[in-house]
From TrEMBL:
GO terms for cellular component: chloroplast. It holds the Pfam family AMPK1_CBM. Keywords: Chloroplast, Coiled coil, Plastid, Transit peptide. InterPro entries: AMPK1_CBM, Ig-like_fold, Ig_E-set. Its main location: plastid. Residues 210-286 form the AMP-activated protein kinase glycogen-binding domain. It comes from the Eukaryota. Residues 110-151 form a coiled coil. Gene3D superfamilies: Immunoglobulins. This is Protein PTST, chloroplastic. It is found in: Plastid, Chloroplast.
Length: 289
């Protein structure tokens, strides 16, 4: 302990130190309170001994209050951390109830269904892109066949006109027919073949089909075998004085399809279309020609 002297005697320079190590928090708190500094010493040397001691005690009392407040706050933080750890350990060690197990199973099944639905939607979009590309190719083929059909038709008319002019003397025969008649027969066969191909292309080309449901509802959707029952199609309402008609336009290739309407979340059958099956397997039938 150091001292300094004044006129009335020697006054000790008081130094107070406090060290606390918190094992749980792995922190070290150090507090070093000095009641004097070089400026304070020069000030205290001018004061009487009683005032110096009183001032020193006042500083010590205030710093003690600050230390107590700090320790209380640290202690409360430690208690809260300990309580949170205890509650976590209790929740981990406690066995799950039947309701919690059901909730976990439901969440697991829901995540699997969402994943499968996402994969199905991606595959459906991929198929739609492929279908669009094929539709464009079919349209181009149909246009080319139509042009060829017109050209062949013109050749058939020309060959028929030549054959009607008469057979010149010395004309050659092929398979017992004069070449004029033989040419007309061959061109006519090619023309008929082109017509059949155009019909096949038209049969493979998608068509717009109007699908509707009549009744009172807030939302109506349709699903069917035309897209593998994978994605519902929304129907738009048309309000009238007596009823509401929900309708949409589907682009489908010629064929026979089954479909069902989802009306306000419930499966229903429309009496405006023919049906097939019974009970839960009953569906509407849509024929695209």
């Amino acid at each position: 302990m150091n001292h300094f002297c004044t006129i009335q005697g020697c006054v000790p320079i008081m130094e107070f130190g406090f060290l606390r190590h918190c094992l749980e928090q792995n922190l070290t708190f150090s507090w070093n309170l000095k009641a004097s500094s070089s400026a304070t010493i020069s000030h205290l040397q001018r004061l009487p001994l009683s005032m110096v001691v009183a001032s020193t005690r006042n500083h010590y009392y205030k710093n003690s209050l600050l230390l107590k407040r700090f320790l209380v706050r640290v202690g409360s933080t430690e208690e809260e951390h300990s309580l949170s750890e205890d509650s976590l350990n209790d929740s981990v060690s406690r066995p799950l109830t039947s309701e919690e197990l059901k909730s976990l199973l439901i969440d697991n099944q829901r995540s699997k269904l969402v994943k499968k639905l996402s994969e199905a939607n991606q595959h459906n979009r991929f198929l739609k892109r492929q279908l669009k590309t094929q539709e464009e190719e079919i349209t181009n083929i149909k246009s080319e066949l139509a042009i060829m059909e017109l050209e062949v038709q013109a050749l058939v008319n020309l060959a028929e006109e030549i054959a009607n002019l008469g057979i010149p003397q010395g004309s050659r025969k092929i398979s017992g027919k004069y070449i004029q008649s033989h040419l007309l027969t061959r061109l006519d066969a090619v023309h008929n073949k082109l017509k059949e191909q155009i019909k096949d292309v038209e049969a493979a080309q998608s068509k717009e089909v109007n699908v509707f449901w009549i009744g009172m509802a807030e939302s109506v959707q349709v699903m069917g075998s035309f897209d593998g029952w994978s994605q519902p199609e929304d129907l738009s309402p048309e309000y009238t004085a007596s009823f509401t008609k929900f309708s949409t336009t589907l682009v489908l290739r010629p064929g026979r399809y089954e479909m069902k309407f989802l009306v306000d979340g419930e499966w229903q059958i429309s009496r405006e279309f023919p049906t097939s099956g019974e009970g839960m397997l009953e569906n509407n039938v849509l024929v695209v020609e």
